[in-house]
Design a protein that fits this description.
alpha+beta; OB fold (Dihydrolipoamide Acetyltransferase, E2P); 3 helices; 6 strands
Amino acid sequence: MRGLLRFRVGVVLILLACSVPAYSHHSFAGAYFESDSVTIDGDVVEFVYRAPHAWLYVMAADSSGRPQRFGAEWASPSRLERDGVERDTFKYGDQVSITGAPGRNEGAHQIHLKKVTRFSRGKWSWDGPQGQR
């Protein structure tokens, strides 16, 4: 009887452990309006280059003209590295223009990054997985 109980508890624990990675990966379409596009012009305040997705944060004016911190969710660092995007590609204060799909939660100020141009420290652009321009 104890062996059966241990077996059942073990099976439940394994199922729970396997469900965590499946839950943690999300669909971009669930968080962003992928068929829409917005452009944000601002200054970089942070570049987070780590898995599962890199984030580029910029200060830019919202629709009311007030400064807001916008987060642009990007691809994984391993994919970005193949496309020529490195940890030091963006620095605090860099002037950028970001185009992407707006977030479904407008108050979160997030977009799914599709294109970015850096104007400071030499013009540099990325326009999808083809790499830098």
